[in-house]
Structures are given as structure tokens and as C-alpha cells.
């Protein structure tokens, strides 16, 4: 099976913060891959912009180095890189001043799609939005892309929304969450709503519980200063895990339309019950304890008294007819045993087993792997081959995208590639709406306020483990257990 490539309309894409880490690692190499795939028309232009003084030749050399560093040699060649670089331009601008803006205005074309990627800190969103209008660059058809963090609480999210709304309509604002661009996340919607097989079972009558896991093997690294003001709750749960929960739990939209999908996601967030203190566990990774060993979280962020969590696990409930009584267990953390992002739908056992108390009995589980090795796995019970009676064993019905789609189809576009192309198309389905962001913070803020008021300290856990022991107990007391995080 070969994936189809549908070209977008010609565009001018301005990447503010073009010399930053995100642009270098993801945005610019991703645009090159879309160019090689034939999705970007030859008349399109990519304009880098930052405070750094640089000419077009310097920017092209910068992008060429990024492509060489972050793309496998099999995914690039000198001729295509040279052709891609011909589409690049650069203008140095001052986000808080007027320097460079007239030059940028003179470069932008009015007869193509205009998109502006704010690959900068949220403190500059308002300045960029205001200057795009003051200098007559943005039009009613322009689109802006804003990166997370979109606020650090409800009040700051409302302020950011209001600031952007002064200059752009909601239909022009694309709040990007790269998890929604992953192939498997979108396939989750296809599995649910394009097949009659699962949707009749997708409710509290048949689903025992749901687990959402995003595990990382790395620590905070060079992000320590930012991360210590954020923590796992703000950095991962409020956005990434919340979006995954919404896609699992939402009702079928009346059609696959941006606002129809986001309306249903918003209903899920509004239906989330407050989380009880006993239903949440915060953790912080320890150090190796020996000279030369890996540093602890506190050492990584340079604050021995820090109470910021690098791990969080919680139990959430959705108060609606579909999910009443079905718990959703969410966990994410750094320096864990393996790197894995997975959604597991754990179905209930059969009402009555005709095979008696067969040892090794397992529930059916639909496991959706977001990374690595994107794919889906459905575990079912069958008879163990051979004589000797009816012995049951669990086997997987496995669909790895790399195997199912073949060599050509396995080269799945990165999430950023897909989402940027959706911006050019004007498709907001996989982007968060302003009221979604605010509703997520409205649910998250009381949880954070409660543990801060109690003065809770995160539980310590060893690097390479599955997290704090208390997190294991969170499921154990419900008669359940976490799925294994594989190395």
C-alpha cells in the first residue's frame, strides 16, 4: 500500500524563531520532507525570521546543516536539498520593535496562502500578532500557528487568547499539539468511527478501564529552567494526555469537521470530575547516588528543594452516560524504564466462562502505540495448539504500520509535517480551539492548587523504573495493574 500525496496550494510560510531548536530539529527538516514528497508547490516560499542578523545564504547553510543532522542519509540527497534551499528566504526582525518589519512586508505575496509560525516563547505571541497587523502584513485570510505552552494556568491562557483575538479571528489561530498529528492518533478516530466492530463496545458496559501512558527515558536535560516552572502536569497532562483522552472518550461528531470534532472533545473536558487527592501520585526521579552517576531531578534543575514533579499518575472519571464508572488512568514521566506512548482500552471479562477458572485468563485489550513502532494490537484468547484438553492462551492480532503499509507506506510523515500542511489547507481539525484550552486549564488548576496548598512533596523513584511505588498502588487497590513499560 502506497500513501497518496495531495499537494497544497502555493504559500508563503514565515517561521518566526527560525534559528531556534524546534525549527532546526522539526519544522525545517519536516518541510524539506514534504517538498521531496511533492506536496509543496514549486512556487511556494519559506521565510525564516529571528533576531539573528543573517542573509539568505547564511540561512540556507543553516537549514542544510539541520537537514543533514536530523534526517537519515536515505531520506535526503544533494540535488533535492539544493532545490529546497532555493525556496528559502530570511529576514531579521525585532519582535518588540520595528526593525525588519518593512522588509518582511515587502517580501510577502498577497495572491498565495499566508501562514505565520510562532516558534517562539508565549511572551512574544502578542508582539508578533500586533506587528503583523501594524505593518499591514497579515490579511483576513492569514493563519498563525502558536506553540505550547499556551499559558501556565487558566488566567494566563485567557490572557493569551484575548491578546490573539485582538488581531486574529479564532478561525485563523492554529494552536498546535504535535501528538494530534501522529498517524496512530488519527487512526484512533478511523478505528472508532469507520468500523462497526468497536463502537458498540466503546462504553462503560464493555470497557473495564483505559490506560494512557507517555513514558520517556530521558531526564529534563537542558530544559531544566523551563520544566521546573511547569512539571509533568502542565507540560504533558494538561495538553498531550488530555487530547488523547478526549479522542478516546468523545461522542461521534456529526461529521469529520473541525468544529464538530472539537465540540465533542470540549464536552469530554467539561464532563471530567475533579480528581480526589488519593487518586493522584506525583514523583521525582532520584540520582544514581554515586560519584559520576546520573544526576537527580533536583540536580538537573539546580534546586535541591524543588517540589516539581517529573512523573504523574492519576485516575480520572467522566460523568456522562457512555463512561459512568469507567476509570481512565493517565501516567507520564521522565527517566522511566522505556520510551513508549500507548493508549490501552482494556475490555471487561466475559460474563461467564464456560471453561471454568482457566489459569492465564486475560481480558481483551486494544493497545494503540503512538511511539515507537506506531501501530495497533488487539489481544484475544484462543485455544492453545496441541492435544491435552482446552487450554487457553492469549495471542495478539498485530498491525504494525511498517509491516501493513509496506516499504513505501512505512515512511510515515512526522507529526509536524502533517500539521503544517493542514495549516496551509486551512483545516483546524487537529488543532486546539481556545475554549478547549481554557476548559483543560479549568480542570487542571484545582488539582495543582490542592497539592500546593497541602505542601506535597513528590515521591522519589529510581531512574529506569516504572515510577513511584505509590503509582502501582493506585491501580492495585482497584484490583488492576499498569501495563508494562518495555525497555
TrEMBL record:
SUPFAM superfamilies: Glyceraldehyde-3-phosphate dehydrogenase-like, C-terminal domain, NAD(P)-binding Rossmann-fold domains
Swiss-Prot/TrEMBL keywords: Carbohydrate metabolism, Glucose metabolism, NADP, Oxidoreductase
Pathway of action: Carbohydrate degradation; pentose phosphate pathway; D-ribulose 5-phosphate from D-glucose 6-phosphate (oxidative stage): step 1/3
Domain Glucose-6-phosphate dehydrogenase NAD-binding: from-to ranges: 14-187
EC numbers: 1.1.1.49
Catalytic activity: D-glucose 6-phosphate + NADP(+) = 6-phospho-D-glucono-1,5-lactone + NADPH + H(+)
Domain of life where this protein originates: Bacteria
Binding site for NADP(+): 17-24, 51, 148
Domain Glucose-6-phosphate dehydrogenase C-terminal as annotated: residue spans: 189-483
EC primary class: oxidoreductase
Catalytic residues in the record: 240
Keyword Protein transport: no
Matching Gene3D superfamilies: Dihydrodipicolinate Reductase, domain 2 (3.30.360.10), NAD(P)-binding Rossmann-like Domain (3.40.50.720)
Binding site for substrate: 178, 182, 216, 235, 334
Cited function: Catalyzes the oxidation of glucose 6-phosphate to 6-phosphogluconolactone.
Alphabetized PANTHER family for the sequence: GLUCOSE-6-PHOSPHATE 1-DEHYDROGENASE, GLUCOSE-6-PHOSPHATE 1-DEHYDROGENASE G6PD
Family affiliation: Belongs to the glucose-6-phosphate dehydrogenase family.
Protein name: Glucose-6-phosphate 1-dehydrogenase
Gene: zwf
Amino acid at each position: 500500500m502506497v500513501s497518496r500525496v495531495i499537494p497544497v496550494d502555493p504559500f508563503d510560510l514565515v517561521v518566526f524563531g527560525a534559528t531556534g531548536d524546534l525549527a532546526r530539529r522539526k519544522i525545517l527538516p519536516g518541510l524539506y520532507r514534504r517538498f521531496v514528497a511533492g506536496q509543496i508547490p514549486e512556487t511556494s516560499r519559506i521565510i525564516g525570521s529571528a533576531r539573528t542578523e543573517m542573509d539568505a545564504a547564511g540561512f540556507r547553510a543553516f537549514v542544510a546543516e539541520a537537514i543533514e543532522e536530523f534526517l537519515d542519509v536515505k531520506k535526503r540527497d544533494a540535488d533535492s536539498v539544493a532545490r529546497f534551499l532555493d525556496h528559502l528566504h530570511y529576514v531579521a526582525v525585532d519582535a518588540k520593535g520595528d526593525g525588519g518589519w518593512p522588509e518582511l512586508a515587502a517580501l510577502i505575496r498577497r495572491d498565495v496562502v499566508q501562514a505565520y509560525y510562532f516558534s517562539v516563547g508565549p511572551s512574544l505571541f502578542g508582539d508578533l500578532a500586533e506587528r503583523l497587523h501594524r505593518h499591514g502584513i497579515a490579511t483576513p485570510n492569514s493563519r498563525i500557528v502558536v506553540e505550547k505552552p499556551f499559558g501556565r494556568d487558566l488566567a494566563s491562557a485567557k490572557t493569551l487568547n484575548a491578546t490573539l483575538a485582538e488581531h486574529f479571528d479564532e478561525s485563523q489561530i492554529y494552536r498546535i499539539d504535535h501528538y494530534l498529528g501522529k498517524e496512530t492518533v488519527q487512526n484512533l478516530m478511523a478505528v472508532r468511527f469507520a468500523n462497526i466492530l468497536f463502537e458498540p463496545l466503546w462504553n462503560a458496559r464493555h470497557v473495564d478501564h483505559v490506560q494512557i501512558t507517555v513514558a520517556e527515558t530521558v531526564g529534563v536535560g537542558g530544559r531544566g529552567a523551563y520544566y521546573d516552572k511547569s512539571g509533568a502536569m502542565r507540560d504533558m497532562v494538561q495538553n498531550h494526555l488530555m487530547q488523547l483522552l478526549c479522542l478516546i472518550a468523545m461522542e461521534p461528531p456529526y461529521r469529520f469537521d473541525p468544529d464538530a470534532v472539537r465540540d465533542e472533545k470540549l464536552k469530554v473536558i467539561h464532563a471530567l470530575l475533579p480528581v480526589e487527592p488519593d487518586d493522584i501520585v506525583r514523583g521525582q526521579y532520584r540520582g544514581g547516588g554515586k560519584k559520576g552517576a546520573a544526576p537527580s531531578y533536583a540536580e538537573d534543575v539546580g534546586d535541591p528543594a524543588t517540589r516539581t514533579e517529573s512523573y504523574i499518575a492519576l485516575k480520572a472519571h467522566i460523568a456522562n452516560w457512555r463512561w459512568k464508572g469507567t476509570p481512565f488512568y493517565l501516567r507520564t514521566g521522565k527517566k522511566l524504564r522505556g520510551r513508549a506512548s500507548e493508549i490501552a482500552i482494556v475490555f471487561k471479562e466475559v460474563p461467564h466462562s464456560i471453561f471454568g477458572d482457566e489459569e492465564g485468563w486475560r481480558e481483551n485489550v486494544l493497545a494503540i502505540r503512538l511511539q515507537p513502532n506506531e501501530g495497533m494490537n488487539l489481544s484475544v484468547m484462543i485455544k492453545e495448539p496441541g492435544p491435552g484438553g482446552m487450554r487457553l492462551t492469549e495471542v495478539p492480532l498485530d498491525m504494525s504500520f511498517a509491516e501493513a503499509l509496506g516499504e513505501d507506506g512505512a515512511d510515515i510523515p512526522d507529526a509536524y509535517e502533517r500539521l503544517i500542511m493542514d495549516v496551509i489547507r486551512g483545516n483546524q481539525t487537529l488543532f486546539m480551539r481556545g475554549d478547549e484550552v481554557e476548559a483543560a486549564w479549568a480542570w487542571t488548576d484545582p488539582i495543582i492548587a490542592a497539592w500546593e496548598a497541602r505542601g506535597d512533596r513528590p515521591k522519589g523513584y529510581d531512574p529506569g523504573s516504572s515510577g513511584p511505588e505509590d503509582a502501582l498502588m493506585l491501580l492495585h487497590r482497584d484490583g488492576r495493574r499498569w501495563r508494562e513499560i518495555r525497555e
